[in-house]
Specification:
Blueprint (H helix, E strand, L loop, with lengths): L1 H24 L11 H12 L2 H34 L1 H14 L8 H8 L3 H25 L3 H9 L4 H39 L4 H10 L3 H29 L4 H8 L1
Helix pairs in contact: 2-10, 3-4, 3-6, 3-8, 3-9, 5-6, 6-8, 8-9, 8-10, 9-10
């Protein structure tokens, strides 16, 4: 089953690349704006051979990893705290509902004002966007706890931390891993967006330079790299999720299929 899915995926990718080669060659679009796949591949090879490309890639991954780590840690801690202290959850509910819908890109002027084009501008946007993905999933997970199991834990004299460890956390963990997977993708999007708009060092800034200098194949090559990064991050996040939830019914069922 998985082999057939992989074969279909490879066939679809090959067809997409062939279409990207044929469309500009046939004159359906101008090569100046959409170069053939072969020219993009050549530009990608040139980029890979350039040391500045790897420096930009490292800058992007640094902003992504640091921002994601801060967002995940803060989201889990705040989510658990709000869940075990009902009055605190009620007091912050309206604030969360007000802040959560604000698009992270709307904070770009604030980030530039505070930190200019430094890494901290990228971190501000990444952390803000990824934090909500984790926090909301943690809150949902904590709400899904079986009240009978929680009352049983209380009746056996388990303290707050023991209940979190043995009752709340196992129930919330699938939600937490979903939040981490979503946050990982969102963090990459915001890292590249911040670099593209703010001008912070990274792949986004390199894409902006290629666009302004009319290096169209190089621009598309860098966009392909960001797409591959997103794919690798998603695959890695799913792998971590399956390992962390190997005991869970959903993963056991997935493996069995």
């Amino acid at each position: 089953m998985r082999g057939a899915e992989a074969a279909l995926g490879a066939a679809g990718l090959a067809a997409f690349l062939a279409l990207g080669e044929a469309v500009p060659r046939l004159g359906l679009v101008e090569e100046e704006y959409f170069p053939p796949t072969s020219r993009i591949a050549d530009a990608l090879g040139t980029e890979v051979a350039d040391g500045a490309f790897w420096t930009a890639l490292g800058d992007t991954l640094t902003g992504w990893a640091l921002g994601l780590a801060v967002a995940v840690g803060a989201g889990i801690v705040v989510g658990v705290l709000l869940s075990v202290v009902p009055y605190l959850r009620e007091a912050t509910a309206s604030t969360i509902e007000f802040l959560r819908p604000i698009p992270s890109v709307a904070l770009i002027p604030l980030a530039v004002l505070l930190f200019g084009t430094e890494l901290r501008s990228v971190l501000l946007l990444v952390v803000y966007a990824a934090f909500w993905q984790v926090l909301i999933q943690v809150l949902y997970g904590m709400r899904d706890v079986d009240p009978v199991a929680e009352e049983t834990a209380r009746s056996y004299g388990l303290g707050t931390w023991a209940r979190i460890r043995y009752v709340l956390w196992p129930t919330a963990l699938p939600y937490v891993m979903t939040g981490v997977r979503l946050a990982a993708a969102v963090a990459l999007i915001l890292a590249v967006t911040a670099e593209l708009v703010v001008g912070a060092p990274g792949l986004g800034a390199r894409i902006a330079v290629a666009q302004t200098s009319q290096a169209v194949p190089e621009m598309y090559a860098l966009i392909v790299v960001t797409g591959l990064l997103g794919l690798l991050i998603n695959v890695g996040a799913r792998s971590v999720e399956r390992r962390a939830l190997a005991w869970h019914q959903s993963v056991r069922g997935e493996v069995a299929v």
